[in-house]
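Do me a favour: review this protein, sequence plus structure tokens, and tell me how the chain folds. Record follows.
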Amino acid sequence: MSLGARRCLGLVALLAGLLAADAGVTSPYRRKLEATADMPLDADVFRVPPGYNAPQQVHITLGDQDGTAMIVSWVTPNELGNSTVMYGGAPDKLELRAEGVHTRYDYFNYTSGFIHHCFLKNLKHRTKYYYAMGFGHTVRTFWFTTPPKPGPDVPYKFGLIGDLGQTFDSNITLSHYEENGGDAVLFVGDLSYADNHPLHDNNRWDTWGRFAERSVAYQPWIWTAGNHELDFAPELGETAPFKPFTHRYPTPHRAAGSTEPFWYSVRMASAHVIVLASYSAYGKYTPQWAWLQDELARVDRKVTPWLIVLMHSPWYNSNSYHYMEGETMRVQFERWLVDARADLVLAGHVHSYERSHRVSNVAYDIINGKSTPARDAAAPVYVTIGDGGNIEGIADNFTQPQPSYSAFREASFGHATLEIKNRTHAYYAWHRNQDGAKVVADGVWLTNRYWLPTQDDTN
């Protein structure tokens, strides 16, 4: 064989290897076939805390955009009690005091406990605070650490969880996240799945709150509203969407200039996080459309280099489950996110895991035939993380063949983490529930689209 022929064959082999390395992976892993069932009501993770009228379902989220305020929420089951929170730098030095508000709601044949929300303000960045509530009856004490002051090279670790529910698998997901550790959770919607029970049994909102307390009382979770938060049931006389969710889980939307609690933004360390609402109007000139346009103009990549967007219904999804349900929002907003050089878009809704290459489909205008997503270095990576473990089970019907935009997909439950190192690099890792918590089933180093837009979408 001539030297030229050998070189030609070598080049063909090299190109084939590069193409194979860049090809999407449909994981061959198959979890054990078993029912996905909610844990029984007497499970220890649902245990009511001891003591008369003891605060329960304690959870926190940011109270402003930059981490100097925190919203503390809890439920008292027997009587109102008070909405006071005492807080400070040590459990025996709770020298600061805040007075909150309370609310209740009825849902068909259910009446909630007394739901308290208290706003703690003027907090210092990167500081551990202890806080307590339940004065007059049973006092409980917790703690949290505020996020560091936003800055371009401030490291921070997010947990990424969606569609959690309260099954045995949900418990594994939360336990694994606790083992891996994180500073805050970006939650992409579908909390309790109470609406999967007869009459939208709102007791399942209470059990979920007690189940999640072990994490969300100690670090902020950033909430996205999913379809299972709608609780729209005209057959039950319940026609106010999101009633249980909005009574129980406040967001800092006013600080973000939003008119509704379902779309807003926060700045945490080196990340600017935008939360979008898949089930609120987003067409041209709607409040969400106008807000997002203004919000993207406010992003300062010199201060918060990492631009992360949360939503519930994914724009890129190669599973037959909920296929293309996010398409109208993609058509409305994808060009904006590409122009803004967003780094990562997180969604739930589909009960499997999938990560995309950096692709966009902004050229397509219905008649030009350019309907295939194309590689785009300015585009975000899209991750579907709706695999928390809920009662509806795994979505295991991936389309075949795997589309070119899909980098890795697997029909398993799990969670992910995003560990931001500095303005240029972050490590993303997905952990399936069937492995040990520390095992990475899919991982990739991401480079920032503003500071270092290299090719980074292959693990």
User: Anything to note?
Assistant: Residues 3-22 form the longest helix (20 residues).
